[in-house]
Amino acid sequence: MDKTQKQKLKEFVKMGKWNYVFTYGVVRWGMLCALLIILFEKFILDKRITEFDVTLNIIIWGIGGLIFGVWTWNSINKKLQEK
Questions:
Q1: Model pTM?
Q2: Please, what's the b/e burial string for 31-62 (b: 16 or more CB within 10 A of its CB; e: otherwise)?
Q3: Could you read off the pLDDT of 37-71 as tens digits, one per residue?
Q4: What is the CB neighbour count within 10 angstroms for residue 9?
């Protein structure tokens, strides 16, 4: 790991766990996946999208993003402790 990577990981840690998890897990990863799935269903599967579909995707991918964020947070801390 070079200095720029290590510095970036330290900046993530400075954000705080839940701020990082919400920003990078729930918002960036989870909502991006929800949007992509909704667009896929609409334009590729030619499905009529309802409010229920949008809400369900946001909830499911939001929870997935929460899990992803916690997992990546733990991975960042593990990398910093190893080096």
A1: 0.87
A2: bebbeeebeeeeeeeeeeeeeeeeeebbeebb
A3: 999 999 999 999 999 999 999 999 999 999 999 99
A4: 17
